[in-house]
Amino acid sequence: MSSETGTKENPWKLKTPPGTSEYQMYKSEKDGLEILVCTVGSTILHYDYRCLADLHTMLLNHTDWMELGSADEQKPAKPGTVEAWGRSDENPLGGWYGLKKGFRGRFGMYIPPLMEALGLADLEHNARNNRMKGL
């Protein structure tokens, strides 16, 4: 059994920014693409793995706190938030980092705690309106 964290056998165990829900993530590969597999209860979401490096770079260039603004795919993202950036034509990927149609949103909910766990960002843990900042 591997002791490396972030594998299917030993996933990162995380909590949403408000600390109200637990979920797991691990790095995998699908169709030749490195992905993050996010399991929330029985729901499984996929994100392009490069979102970690891309979001980190954007946050460092932003230099200040940025609101998370998490939203489901079917709802519009609040402008200027991590969620809006994660689905914007202006990000390095040129669109959604979420890969499963119908479940591409919630980027601002599930990616920031992993960034914090990896030491790439500071993250607030309030009941709502949380923000993050690159380290």
How many H/I helical runs? 3
The 3D shape can be described as globular
Helix content: 10-25%
The counted number of beta strands is: 7
Secondary structure elements and pairings:
Blueprint: E1 12-15, E2 22-30, E3 33-40, E4 43-48, H1 51-62, E5 66-67, H2 82-85, H3 107-117, E6 121-123, E7 131-134
Antiparallel strand pairs: 1-2, 2-3, 3-4, 5-7, 6-7
Please give a handful of descriptors for the protein shown:
4-stranded antiparallel β-sheet; 3-stranded antiparallel β-sheet; 3 helices; 7 strands
Describe the structure concisely for a colleague.
The model has no long low-confidence stretch (mean pLDDT 93). The termini are far apart.
Describe this structure in words.
- The protein has 135 residues and is α+β, with helices and mostly antiparallel strands.
- It has one domain (12-134).
- The protein is built from three helices and seven strands.
- The chain has helices at residues 51-62, 82-85, 107-117, and strands at 12-15, 22-30, 33-40, 43-48, 66-67, 121-123, 131-134.
- Strands 1-2-3-4 form a four-stranded antiparallel beta sheet, with helices on one face. A three-stranded antiparallel beta sheet has the order 5-7-6.
- Strand 2 and strand 3 (33-40) form a beta hairpin.
- It is globular and about 35 Å long.
- It starts with 11 loop residues before the first strand and ends with a strand.
